[in-house]
Each structure stands twice: as structure tokens, then as C-alpha cells.
Write a structure and sequence with these properties.
Radius of gyration of chain B: 23 Å
Number of domains of chain B: 1
Largest sheet of chain A: none
Structural class of chain B: mainly alpha
Strand content of chain A: under 5%
Shape of chain B: globular
CATH superfamily of chain B: Sodium/glucose cotransporter
Helix content of chain B: over 70%
Number of helices of chain B: 22
Distance between the termini of chain B: 52 Å
CATH topology of chain B: Sodium/glucose cotransporter
Shape of chain A: elongated
Largest interface: A-B, 55 and 53 residues
CATH architecture of chain B: Up-down Bundle
Order of helices and strands of chain B: HHHHHHHHHHHHHHHHHHHHHH
Number of helices of chain A: 4
Number of strands of chain A: 0
Oligomer: heterodimer
Chain lengths: 110, 554
Amino acid sequence: MSSTSHSAIYARIRSNPRFKELVAKRQGFATLLSIIVLTIFYGFFMVVAFNPKLIGQRLSEGSYVTVGIAAELFMFIFFWVLTAVYVKRANGEFDEMTAEIVNDAAKGVK
Amino acid sequence: MLSRLNVLLLGLLAPALACAGDAIAATEKQPLNLHAIGMFVLFVAMTLGITKWAAGRTKSAADFYTAGGGITGFQNGLAIAGDYMSAATLLGLTALVYTKGVDGYIYMIAFFAGWPIILFLMAERLRNLGKFTFADITSYRLNQSKVRTMAAVSSLTVVCFYLVAQMVGAGQLIKLLFGLDYTIALFVVGALMMVYVTFGGMVATTWVQIIKACMLLAGGTLVMVLSMSQFGFSFETLMDKAISVHNLGEKILFPGSLLPDPVTALSLGLGLMFGTAGLPHILMRFFTVTNAKEARKSVLYASGFVAYFFNVILLMGFCAIIIVGQNPEFFEGGKIGGKIIGGGNMIAMHLAKAVGGNLLLGFLSAVAFATILAVVSGLALAGAAAISHDIYARVIRQGKATETEELRVSKLSSVALGIVAVILGIAFEKMNVAFMVALAFGIAASANFPVLILSMYWKGLTTRGAVMGGYAGLVAAVLLVLFSKSVWVTVLGNAQALFPYDQPALFSMPLAFLVTFIVSKLDNSPEAVAERERFGDQYVRAQTGFGAAEASAH
């Protein structure tokens, strides 16, 4: 396929409202998840910097699980679950939409 | 203090953690360790066999740089984990938890948190736009020569500093673990790296990293399970004993000297998070998979393995406080609380010996060596790609080089990088190279990352902006590290640091963004107008993968 027909297909894809919908949905989702991760991560770092005493506080009497250890374990698990959630939606719903959009555009340009 | 932690954590394997003082003290040569050597020979035989097989499958440039783009998401996830977790992760982080408690855990989350961000913001665009190097993306709609030269310069800077740091660490570690001479150790590492990369390209490098990741995960898990069994698998019992015997007592549950002020905390967080997203050898791994789907899966698997392993390390470190820290066998002169035999980095090794005897010690030593080989191979390949694909094929030959010529140059470059790495490794043996890894992450976060992310997201980016911003980030990161305590005072012997922090990212990264933005905004040349226009097609390809480099058929 020559680059001119590539360009033609790119133009067709761009003008497809479904493409705008895909980008808006996926970008919104990715941004939301990023904000969640960055807020929790830097929030935790700020607690470490400004209130280190809280990090070592135990969750309950007689247990060695502290606020810091619990929060970090939570981050390890939660951030990983978020990646799984994103991969599931992107590889399923978003990729199906992408395939449809590309096929539609390719059909029109021979 | 922070610089000393960096040494340990970022790949330098400084042997002198427990005893205060210089980050890299000369390590003592240990007696030959036959178990370790036997297992290591087995690993080398296996990887050389794979290299031979891979050599038969490495014919085109795509095979060499990206294994033909045919790696699956799961394989690539393992390989990324193998590329990312260096011997410092196993040895340095275990030692950090052993000496400082939860400080080590805080460092680990900073190493981990970059991965979800890479997935959400970069993974699919990287795969859809890139071919062999990340400069393929930054130069996609900009001036090829200028942008690729800038990207190659900063890539090679990152690769060289990282490589030297790994080589010096490798020499020290091998001397300790195997009883081999420092220089011989460097020659062994350099030679094996050249063989893997030159003959087997990305196929061999990927499999070396996959095997190493499996060995690391299995070895670490085994040591952790055997250690935890001594405490009835109870975290409470473990911590109760650890706190009662540790010289810091309850303080191991609190953050210590790792993050003394908010500026350092923020700078460290930024540097580790976005430095990861700008490391050329990590970015290159995204081009080895079939499509964006597999690129996303790679991150899912890689981050799962990394997260799991960091938690294993936490438990290993806490267990070692009792199992190693209370056993006179592991202290010089048999004095508990004195100097650890072989230095602080040996904690994980001593723990393996305590719970699994010489056999497990030998296995874990072989794992550490394999780890170094896997990381330097990935670095050498990324460096060779910057020289042959960016500088030679696109800048010098202006895209007119044949595939055979480009391939020949890339193989010569890998050999040259191997030789350079060995020579620099020998030259820096006695030097404190702590600053080199800080510099590598700083440059990656300041020069590579801003231009890369803006090229994918911002239509207004122009060649002038990208080049000026990239060089600004590069120079700023180098200067700030040069003026920081770890170089200005520790290496150059000046009395007072000119820059009060050890982490440059908080300052150099925003600077790079700012320069790129302002210069691009002011650029109204006809080229700039055309470059902005071309963003449209790039954007569609980034989003849909239409027109992306495809896997070559085998």
C-alpha cells in the first residue's frame, strides 16, 4: 500500500465520529487511572516527607502491620489491579472499536 | 546518605553498606565457590545454545533489533522484568530492608509506580509508532537528522553510564561470589555480552532475560519460603523477633534518612518514575511484540512480576535480620553486630546459605551473575541500535544504507560497546561510581522522556523545540549531578556541594519541558508549520495502529 493511500485512510479515519468517540473514551479512561495512581503515590510520598510518624503507626494493638506497610501493600496490589482493568478494557472494547473504524476506512479506499 | 542508598538501589552493588564509609570499598576476594561456578556454567551453556539457535533466526534488521516483532506479551513481560530487576534489586534492596527496615519498601514502591503510568500513557503509542528505537517516534514527523542525533546522544549517554555502573558492580560482585579476579570477571561479562548480542541479537537477549527472570523469581521465592518457615509463616512472629533484635528496634517501622525533605522525596519519585519511562533499553522492548494488545499485556505481566518480587524481597530482608543478623558465622571474627563477611550486599547470599546450604547459595550466586549478563546485554543492544539505526543509517547515510550494511554496523557497534564497557569498568574499579546511575535515570527522565511524551501528545512540537529541550534536559541533568554531593564532594573532593540535592529530576525535567514548549511555540518556520500539519496522520496511527510496523514472518 502506498503512502498516499495510507494518508487517504488516515483522513477517513479522522473524519469518522466513531474515531473521536474512541479517542475520547480511551484517553479519558487512561487519564483517570493515571490521576488515581499519581495522587495516591505522591500523596503517600508527602506523608512520608511531612508526617513520618503516621507511617509507623500500627493498625491495631499488638499487630506489627503498620499504616506504612498496609498502604504500600495496598498500592502494589491496587495499582496492578488498575493495570489489569485497563488492559482488559483496552484489549477488548477499545480494540474492537479500533478494528471497526480501520475496516470501515479501508473499505472506502481501494 | 541518600547517595549511598542510590548506590545500592540503582545498580551499583556497593559492598560496604553495613559498615559506614565509602560506597565502594575494595571487596575481598573469596575462595572459589564450586557450586556457584557449576550452576553458572550450566546457565552459560544453556544461553549459548539459545544464542546459536537465535543466530539462525536473526537475518534481517528487524530480527536483530526487535526479534522480528514476534515476541508474545507474556514472554515480553518476563523479559522486561528480567531487564528491569538488576542484581541490585536482589542484593541491594534485601540489604536495605535488613539495615533500615521499611525505608527499603518505600524505595521499592517508587520503582514500581512508573509501570502503570507507562501502560496508561505510553505503551500502545510506543508500539504503534515505533520500529526499532524510540527515536523512530520522536523523529516521526520532525527533522530526522537533528532529532535522531539528539536522541542517540542522550540514549548513548544513558547506556554508557548505566553500563559502567553495572560493569563495576559486576566485577566487585563476581570477585566476592566466585572468587574470580576483578579484571577476569569483567572480561567474562564483556565477552558473553558481545556473543549474545552480536550473534543472537534481540532474540537471544530476550531469552537470556526470560531465563534470568525465571531463575530470579524461583530463587527468591525459595529463599523466602524457607526463611518464613522458621517463623511458622507468621508475619507477626517474624516482626516481633526482628524488632527485638534489630539495633534500630521499633524504628525499622518508620521512614528514616531516605527521604529527609519534601524536595528530595518529590525529586526521587519523579526521577524513578519517569526515568523508567525514558530508559532506551526498556523502551526498546515495546517494539518486540506483535501489536499494541501484546504491548499492554507485557506491562501487565512485567508489573505483576516486579510487584510480587519486591514483596518477596521485603520478607527476605526482615527474615535476614534474625537468621543472618543473629548468626556469628556471617560476621567477621564471629562477632554479632560487627562487620558482615563480604560487606552489606552479601545479606541475601548469607540468607540463602543459612536456609539452604551451599547448594542454594550457589544457585543464588548464579542468579546474580545471570542477572548482570541479562541487564548489560539489553543495554548493549539499545546502544548498538542508537549507533547503527539512528546515527549510521538515518543521519550519516540519510536512509540510503542497505539492511546488510546497517546490520553489519550494529554488530560492530555491539562489539565496540562491549570493549568500551570492559575498559571503562577497569578504569573505574576504584572509583565511586554512585553518581552514574543517578545520572542515567536523571538523563532518561530529563532528556528522553519529555521529548518522547510531547512528540506523542502535543501537536505543537517542532524540531527546534525538541532538539533544544532535549539538550537542555541532558545538560541540566549532567550539571546538577556534577554539582551534587555525590560527585562534587565525594568524587572531586570539594568541601561543599554547589547543588544541595542528589536527585536532579525535579529541576531538570520541568526545565526540559519548559524549553521544549517555549522554543516550539516561538518557532514559525515553514518546517515547523509542516511538522505540525503532519501530526494528524501520526495521531491516527498512534491511536489505531494502522500502518504500524508489523511482525516479520518466520
